[in-house]
Structure formats: structure tokens, C-alpha cells
Amino acid sequence: ARINQQPLPLSKIYKVPYLDQSNLSCDARRQRCDVVTPNGYMLQFDDVHLTQEGAKYLGARAFEMSWFKG
Fold first, then answer.
1. Other CB atoms within 10 A of residue 54 CB
2. Which of 5, 7, 35, 63 lies 20 to 30 Å from 18, alpha-carbon distance?
3. Positive or negative CA dihedral for 22, 24, 25, 31?
């Protein structure tokens, strides 16, 4: 997504990890992105802000993908 293109260069400049949210909620092979959790809760309440349930779901997905391992 275009909104995710700007932070990437800054993360490289400052050598900090950047997690693209679309990697958690989208399946490139199927060309689809989740808009609700498996329990039917909306992931976001506008174009960029997560709902509480969306944050829990995507946080769990990041954990499953071992994103937080150091």
C-alpha cells in the first residue's frame, strides 16, 4: 500500500525494524486482505487505525510469524 512506502526508508536510515501491516493481514497469493478477524470483528475503524480486536488479532499474527524474535 502507498501509505507503507514512506516509513521504509526511514527505518533503513535509523536501522530500526519496520513491520508492514499488510504482511499480517494480506495474502499475496490469493490477492486478498482480511478486513475482519475470524470472530467477525472489524480490523480497522478507518483507513489507518486498528480497532482493539484488530490490534489483538494482528499482534497475534505477528507473534505467530516470529516477528518479535530478536
1. 21
2. 35
3. positive
Please choose, from the candidates 33, 34, 37, 29, the residue with its C-alpha nearest in 3D space to the C-alpha of residue 57.
37
**Cell 478486513 -> residue:** 35
**pLDDT over 90 for what percent of the chain?**
41
- 34-53 as b/e: b if 16+ CB within 10 A: eeebeeeeebbeeeeebbee
Radius of gyration of the chain (CA): 13
DSSP notation for the chain: -GGGTTHHHHHHHTT-----THHHHEETTTTEE--B-TTS-BSBSSSSPBPHHHHHHHHHHHHHTTTT--
